[in-house]
């Protein structure tokens, strides 16, 4: 078997055709955000990029992404000069839409290239097949389709860089480039900081310390890695640092004034916590608990801002931070002891999990931080797969509220169901049996869990509207995120066990 | 024969003598010859193709829905808007007016001119839509409405109608036809995807907006019933197709010829003939019954079919021309009790068959339009042109019908349907450019047969006809800014099947058991290559060069002329293959195999 069909390129062509057909679909404010950034980077001098605030959508990504926007704006101004004017708020001529939508598809080629690297780096035979299927599943991911090609963002390109970096970590010879690519990624989008601890531990152990003894430091490697990272950060932030703009940039990158939960609750432990609080509002009078009256209105309104709990104690950012660090450290201990590539990917996944589940103001889109690294090892054996399954369902279902317009409803549901059937079936055929016994009842739980999603989607999209009309709008959102949260937490617990026992 | 209720074991014809080689050859393919085969490659080992069927249907549905996000015909184009408004308006009038007024109501504004099944379908869609938002179909006030939610509803009705009629019919047809032709299940799945992703159908129905797939689906069901030997059902389905859209008449000759032939050969079967006749009459009666009963009850209730519109006398529609001063009218008494029904049916016929219009309406890639470029046909009297069109159509469509009559071989059905439909499209009267869907549908079905999608020649020709067909409806799409979905869907299909402009594998790939290209291969590649080059060149012209001021339609005219020549070649290819496969000119052909099976 020389080649495996279908090839990644063939799938990419068909997917691109579908994505172009989605050009007229709903686009969120992120479309205007990115148009505004094109305008800022194109028409203003560097020094004003992080101070400009004509639009409420100020530049809040790190500088490399701003440079990336600047490069794109050079083409954009040829397509439609009005697109790159800062004052043209909410500008969306058809040229603008075509250009921006098309730029997402083109920059996604980075992802295609990285996935091809993944396939090429896998040993021949069954594991190459598995890598190919996993690569296609990432390429066709409903998450990327919903977030990038409808809602509008550039995650495909970013995750392509992440995957390239993860693949480079597979060989000793390319460890340095892996670290440098990741550093560059951090300078494009700082959300990947959540995964940085795993990189730190892995590179420290495999690159900076001797493979024979952890007490032997490889000084030259340390210098190369440290120097390289410093150079990349210097390139990105240097010009701004020279002008003394670092505090301004940092305040843009890390806006701590936001609340615990995002507008829609991301499916993490805080969603479960909020759900419990809502339930307790009803139960508290009977149990004799005090209910804070001022908090009654806030959670259900789902606005960005402070989240107040009516019965349960409020959560401070420190608590989130401590829990995140704690649950990131646990898998890192094992990674430090056994720095294999599989363990590295597992640790990256678990870092993603910890930050998603316990983080402050987590966005539901951040679930890709978990799903995409996990996809790389989901096919390792059946135990990995059974932990992946509820995540695949929950993670993608939790993205549904991002698109609320009726014409996108069939796209998001049919596409996600299509993807789930196709890849859960394909994964099921490809994943080899594990040497260790399965969890007790875990598979049953996940089958039950997956089947619950069907009535849930039906209720949220159809039944609720018919029964309640426009009232109680928070109910479907709350059900979706609580349901998804159970799946994400369940798969996290499952994967923790798999990670530590394999 | 007591009708279709007699149970026939479905898998009776599972003799494998003819099928073995094909099965084995398909199973032994080393590598996929074109991307669609590669994409379905992992499904080759599956015991049952039903496992991937839901995925295929979902993917086809997703592409349809996504294509539907684009604009529709007549979007924000007052005063008349377009096909979308016509269909919406029929939902408006059928849900609000008494049934006897449907075919009389305000004819200048998209008066109903499709047969009754379309009217009933509109009524159903209109009733459902009015539950969601009555303003969409409010009488008079909703004209030209372009509420985005209405668009979603209308798109949904097209998809749901297609998934209730065309898709099941296509799935069943492909299954039966490939079994009968001894084609492997996996190959049949490849063919099914190619058929469902046909760009012309998606562009006309789901983008430009119409319900052709319902009619085409009934025709597919007709053919599928013929394959299964359920002749009575095939008659019923064909009446349904005619009752939905009169265009199904393009297929009337082969349906009639095949059904008659199957009653006469190999031995005369009068019971079957009678059964078919009764089923046809019964189906027509059921089709017209709501209209007739409605008319009677409206007359009793004192409702006139020709009401005054807003009290304005001038808008009263004239009596049906068939009853106005013709020989027929002398025998009819307008005060008789049967008169309203006759009047209703006469109006129906008048609306459905507009004999009064010209030879061709717009610029269509058929013979007359192309001939008109060379020689101005307006110089001739219309009556002569009508007669000429009739003779030419008969000359083009009778040969395939005679072949299928003399050799009622099930495997020949798609070819016979395609050839006849090409004949009608090229030579008949009052052809619309969207009618190219009618010959394309059966021709594309060839992919599911023996020497189908895996054979170079079939893939090349079916692909050529489809891409040429899309190209001739491009001017229609370009008028409402639908260039992008046109390019995407057409190029995607070409890519999937390995056709130009994305690949030349359908012409030059090595094929098992065939040495080199042969003169046919070279001739095909040469002819098709010329057309593809021209199409590409034409697109560049259309995109970047303005036509000369005195000839603003020059590009469209070129499109029409070249399209007609290409379709003529497709007609000849279908006819040649039909005659060849029927073995009517001496060769063995496939008939014997089928006779043995029967």
How many H/I helices of chain A? 21
Content-based structural category of chain A: mainly alpha
Oligomeric state of this protein: heterodimer
> Could you describe the largest sheet of chain B, including whether it forms a barrel?
none
Q: How widely separated are the two ends of chain B?
A: 16 Å
> What's the total count of β strands of chain B?
0
Overall pLDDT of chain A: 90
Q: What can be said about the biggest beta sheet of chain A?
A: none
As a percent range, the share of helical residues of chain B equals 55-70%
Overall pLDDT metric of chain B: 86
Q: What is the ordering of alpha helices and beta strands of chain A? A: HHHHHHHHHHHHHHHHHHHHH
Radius of gyration of chain B: 24 Å
User: Helix- and strand-based class of chain B?
Assistant: mainly alpha
Query: If interface size is counted as residues with C-beta under 8 Å from the partner's C-beta, which chains form the largest one?
Result: A-B, 28 and 33 residues
- Report the β-strand fraction of chain A as a percent range: under 5%
Distance between the termini of chain A: 30 Å
> How many independent structural domains of chain A?
2
Regions with little confidence, pLDDT below 50 for 5+ residues of chain A: 299-305
Shape of chain B: globular
**DSSP summary, beta strand count of chain A:** 0
Count of DSSP-assigned helices of chain B: 25
Describe this structure in words.
The complex is a heterodimer of chains A (502) and B (598). Chain A has 21 helices and no strands. Chain A is mainly α. Chain A has two domains: 8-242, no CATH class; 317-501. In chain A, helix 20 (442-468) packs antiparallel against helix 21. Chain A is globular. Chain B folds into three domains: 83-159, no CATH class; 165-283 and 361-597, no CATH class; 304-352, no CATH class. Chain B has 25 helices and no strands. The two termini of chain B are 16 Å apart. Chains A and B meet through helix 1 and helix 19 of A and helix 2, helix 3, helix 6 and helix 21 of B.
